[in-house]
Write a structure and sequence with these properties.
The structure is a homodimer. Chain A contains ten helices and eight strands. The first copy, chain A, is α/β, with parallel strands linked by helices and about 280 residues long. In chain A, strands 1-2-3-4-5-6-7-8 form an eight-stranded parallel β-barrel, surrounded by seven helices. In chain A, β1, α1 and β2 form a beta-alpha-beta unit. The two termini of chain A are about 15 Å apart. At the A-B interface, loops of A face loops of B.
Chain lengths: ~280, ~280
């Protein structure tokens, strides 16, 4: 089977709530379901003021699978008090994921400007290790998301898939894997090899798609919809599926430009871009 | 000798003309020399409308060394006609460097949005190989500058020092080495090892400094002056000097913010930042 072909249907299409962030989660769920989308990744802000377990039931009642909860992480901090606060917040996220019925939490691992990356990487590994009993008790898994090197100052000291795989190996737990996002990883000359290695580690837990625009005018909120940029999406998906991955293709787009358009029209464009380019 | 200490004097301080780009090169040369700066890297736009050889003499007469000419490169293109144009332009740059008396050209290697990075990397290697006879004839060397992964779409498909070292090994020419810029490389977990490898290849031709600000608000023109950001400058310089490198520390800052201030005051800040943070 040639995996690098167009996707026949929407059965593996997941959309992150942040992608259509102006919609309340109830609206997103109804609209996604009506459009034939089958998965949703829930950002924690979308749960504010809601009964989490009830929201989980609402999502499943609409025929959507909950793919993951975004996000935990931000382990590094200058003081042990702040590192403990980060652990407490991650434990709250694990409890939320359990209540929601999300099997996975995506970790944006964190970094502290001016603290050495080596120290932040150690604090990240230690932080994840400290959460493993909670994961085992709740059944919620953790996915380390390597972030683009342009976020190494303050968002994540884990900047390549190779580093994430190294952490997975060091942590030796079936609860810990990787979320691979094309936006962060597409440039890496080691990408194909590290995707294969991640697969061999049984650690490829999630796959996120969007695109890289030229020019990119904002470091955070100028992602492209699939097809608007230069990321070789079909090639990367073929590498991902060669590992045996058959999970969701998750559309995670932060874009001031796309958030400003009519969101119903945008959802239709997402579905079309998924068929044409993922 | 502990290399990671403050620099005793300005004998290894070089400033790029683009750093104070509102100044004509004659002004930059006079001001740099008066401030005790010993090296200058000349951007090609600074030579527009001037006799290049005479400008070279003017620089040397003011007591400054010409460290390099910025920049050649941009080898990849969709058509062979455009790749030939790129070679022609690089040959012009080599002739300019020779006339100016610059021993080195810094290469921003190029990338084409939508063309595979693997293909662009091959075109870069082929392009540099085609220039080697010109380098041998003129005595001008070439430095591959790996660029931050956030420029992989359209500016350079060479995004790590490891890749640049691989190219140097493949090209096997004493004319080809590397320009290592902390802005592009600081995040890389392999940086210390790849600097050491670059040294063993006798390929560490140039070292550029600036800083990474948090937040960075523009992908191109929001670099920090040394000390304004999170790059571990002393640590990276110690790795560089451990290889035996004793060339210039070149201040290359693109900053809308710093370009807008009084440039005399800015030059004084550069000199102070060099003493305090490089």
């Amino acid at each position: 089977m040639n995996t690098a072909t167009s996707l026949p249907d929407l059965s593996r299409l997941c959309i992150h709530t942040i992608t259509t962030k102006s919609w309340a989660i109830e609206t997103s769920v109804a609209k996604f379901a009506a459009a034939g989308v089958k998965g949703i990744t829930v950002w924690r802000d979308a749960l504010a003021g809601r009964d989490v377990a009830q929201t989980g039931r609402m999502i499943r009642d609409n025929g959507l699978s909950i793919v993951s909860l975004c996000r935990g992480g931000f382990f590094p901090a200058a003081t042990s008090v702040d590192r403990q606060k980060a652990l407490d917040d991650n434990r709250s996220a694990i409890a939320e994921a359990h209540a929601l019925g999300a099997p996975l939490i995506v970790l944006v691992c964190g970094a502290v400007p001016g603290q050495s990356l080596a120290e932040s990487r150690k604090q990240i590994t230690d932080g994840i290790a400290a959460l493993l009993p909670d994961c085992q008790a709740s059944g919620v898994k953790l996915a380390i998301e390597p972030l683009h090197p342009m976020y190494a100052d303050s968002r994540s000291a884990v900047n390549t898939l190779g580093q994430a795989n190294d952490m997975v190996e060091a942590l030796k737990s079936p609860c810990v894997g990787v979320a691979a996002d094309v936006y962060h990883l597409w440039w890496d000359p080691a990408l194909e090899a590290e995707i294969a290695r991640c697969g061999k580690l049984n650690a490829l837990f999630a796959y996120h798609v969007c695109d890289w625009r030229t020019p990119t005018i904002d470091l955070l909120n100028d992602r492209g919809l699939m097809g608007e940029g230069c990321i070789p999406l079909r090639q990367i998906r073929s590498w991902v599926e060669t590992t045996g991955f058959n999970g969701y293709n998750e559309v995670e787009v932060f874009s001031t430009r796309l958030w400003a358009m009519d969101q119903d029209e945008y959802l239709a464009q997402i579905v079309q871009a998924y068929r044409d380019f993922v």
